[in-house]
Amino acid sequence: MRPVVSSQYRLVQRLFRLSSTDRYLGSKLGLAWSVLQPTLLLLVYTFVFGFVLQIRLPGATTSLDYVVWLFAGLVPWLAMQESILQGSNSLVAHSQIVKNLPIRLEMIPIATSLTAVYMLVVGQAMTIILLLASGIGMTWWILLLIPLDLLLLAMGGALSLLLSPATAAFRDLTHLLPTLLIVVLFVTPIIYPADLLPIALQRIADFNPLYALTDSMRQVTYSGTAPSLNRIIIVSSAVMLLAFVGFRSFRRVSGGISAYV
Q1: CA distance 209 to 244
Q2: Using the 8-state DSSP alphabet, how is residue 140 labeled?
Q3: Residue 1 pLDDT more than 70?
Q4: DSSP state of 26
Q5: Structural contact between residues 165 and 253, judged by C-beta atoms closer than 8 angstroms
Q6: Interatomic CA distance for residues 140 and 161, integer angstroms
Q7: Rounded distance, CA 72 to CA 63, Å?
Q8: pTM for this entry
């Protein structure tokens, strides 16, 4: 049992490195883009919301508070989006591996979805810098970001297992998914407070695992408080269900995937 687990772990490591380097193959900066890209993106958000629109939270004296609040929830969402988009397209991107190497194919979307860790780490580092620069500060609850980050990556991997075979068979999903994720972002209270939603929609949002996860991460960073136990249960249950369904469905169709890539 232990040799099998060890070999699968090494396989995921190699696929992760391959996915990370292949993405920026041919560029002069190479893997440095994995840090520069999220940094530049978040700087654009800071400029637009903090200096152009100058949005302020109720009771805040500057727009910097809103930028910190925004980052605390938006960074996990951007990492989830990155995980889903990269993982869902992984079988197509690594078609030569799918066709020529006798490996467990489910490791490909899992390993590729993990490349979202770059966005997560860089974004949360910038959030912590802003927390300190704004004077908001941190509490020990921020350490809960570690298990919450693991839940996020697990959810991204599970969704990638579900979506990658479908994307291989129906290539239009490659172009449709980014649009769908933008729609989900705007209907989910991530870039605006949940209080702006009607009461009925607020109750629905409370059972949305994506919102439950991002808002829990916002609580331990911006608010400095413990996340809701109910939300952690919702997220954990969703991750386990998605992982179970993802593995089962992937194994059912894995034998025919090579015909589509």
Answers
A1: 16
A2: G
A3: no
A4: T
A5: yes
A6: 34
A7: 15
A8: 0.88
Average pLDDT over residues 98-120: 86
Per-residue pLDDT reduced to its tens digit, 198-223: 888 888 888 889 999 999 999 999 98
Q: What is the pLDDT of residue 70?
A: 87
Structural contact between residues 80 and 116, judged by C-beta atoms closer than 8 angstroms:
yes
Query: Is 132:172 a contact under the CB 8 Å cutoff?
Result: no
Tokens of 130: 């802003």
Count of residues for the chain? 261
Give CA–CA dist 133/35, Å, rounded. Answer: 21
Nearest 5°: the CA angle 75, 77, 80 is 110
For the four alpha carbons of 85, 89, 94 and 98, in that order, the dihedral sign comes to positive
DSSP state of 116: G
Percent residues over pLDDT 70 in the chain: 89
Residue 74 dihedral angles phi and psi, to the nearest 5°: -75, -35
Q: Which helix (H) or strand (E) element contains residue 22?
A: helix 2-23
**Which helix (H) or strand (E) element contains residue 232?**
helix 229-253
DSSP letters for 44-112? HHIIIIIIIS----TT-SSTHHHHHHHHHHHHHHHHHHHHHHHHHTHHHHTHHHHHH--S-TTHHHHHH
**Residues 168, 106, 215, 74: what is their CA dihedral angle, to the nearest 10 degrees?**
-50
Q: Which amino acid is at 254?
A: S
E strand or H helix that includes residue 211? helix 209-218
H or E segment at 212? helix 209-218
For tokens 């860790």, what's the residue? 117
